[in-house]
Amino acid sequence: MSEKPIVLKLGKNAFADEAWKDLGKIADVITIPESITREQFLQELKDPQSKLSRVQVITRTARSVNNTGRFDEELALALPSSVVAVCHTGAGYDQIDIEPFKKRHIQVANVPDLVSNATADTHVFLLLGALRNFSIGNRRLLEGKWPESGPACASPFGYDPEGKTVGILGLGRIGRCILERLKPFGFENFIYHNRHQLSSEEEHGCEYVSLDEFLKRSDIVSVNIPLNSSTHHLIDAETIEKMKDGVVIVNTARGAVIDEQAMTDALRSGKIRSAGLDVFEYEPKISKELLSMPQVLGLPHMGTHCVETRNKMEELVAHNAKNVLLTGKVLTIVPELKNETWPNDVKPLI
């Protein structure tokens, strides 16, 4: 009997046990010790006595970066020639540098659709909370300042949605989910900025504007773009200066899209009135000053931290790996590789 193909599972799964058991019927699913370092991992990949030197499919979680480091050019070059796919548990895959994997004809997959609803729900919670100053009231309540400090713990008045312009930076899957969730609350104006204008069907009634116009008109800046070399610090001191005084910023995408120090400075000055943040530039490390600001409603990256969504994400990763074994192809290849022809030449592994 021939050996089963080897699937390396980097990081733990909390759910989807059945999907992984199913994969284990046709694959040898292996893991690495939680104590392993990047250097040790790279060495084992080259050790002919290690199963890592014969691995064919790799699945990974964002947390596994603590062991392997980024999936960068060094790591891509260190992988054995047997590797045909890397399957990531998440919509954002900024921990993976696609180009070196593309050069090696290694497919990269993510979970692009399953996170949209949960992330959009989180975004709307943060947006409404930041608009209404709920973080300030909550902090003062927990500090025991009610009722002695007066009505609403003397929190500053918040604002209603009526008449406000919501600027959606990145009207993609998640951006559109946020848009549709916000409409019933009474927001009257929606504008967006993408690299390119979308078709009218994809705009969902949202108005396309230039970046400068976007910054000038938005009462609320809703950040929903992926992190890459083009979007890193897209929101910085210069772009913030172009925004309205008292703007509200909400980010559930990636922290480094915003220059965190510039945002902190603007929060301190009042240029940014409040912020709703699920992501941070150097998470899990966050500056003490930013954390101490009562006008910041923050979460520890909980956008998809729910049973149903996480289960579906983990199932899809297992299904991606299984599909590679059965057909040679991942189910959800990342956009940068969708127009490549070489994935079509990959043969089934079993």
UniProtKB/TrEMBL annotation:
Q: Which SUPFAM superfamilies match?
A: Formate/glycerate dehydrogenase catalytic domain-like, NAD(P)-binding Rossmann-fold domains
For this protein, the record's InterPro entries field holds:
D-isomer_2-hydroxyacid_DH, D-isomer_2_OHA_DH_cat_dom, D-isomer_DH_CS, D-isomer_DH_CS1, D-isomer_DH_NAD-bd, NAD(P)-bd_dom_sf
Q: Which domain of life is it from?
A: Eukaryota
Classification via Pfam families: 2-Hacid_dh, 2-Hacid_dh_C
Q: Which PROSITE patterns does this chain map to?
A: D_2_HYDROXYACID_DH_1, D_2_HYDROXYACID_DH_2, D_2_HYDROXYACID_DH_3
Provide the D-isomer specific 2-hydroxyacid dehydrogenase catalytic domain boundaries: 63-334
Q: What name goes with this protein?
A: Glyoxylate reductase
Which species does the entry assign this protein to? Saccharomyces uvarum (Yeast)
Q: What is the lineage of its organism?
A: Eukaryota, Fungi, Dikarya, Ascomycota, Saccharomycotina
What's the gene? Answer: SUVZ14G0610
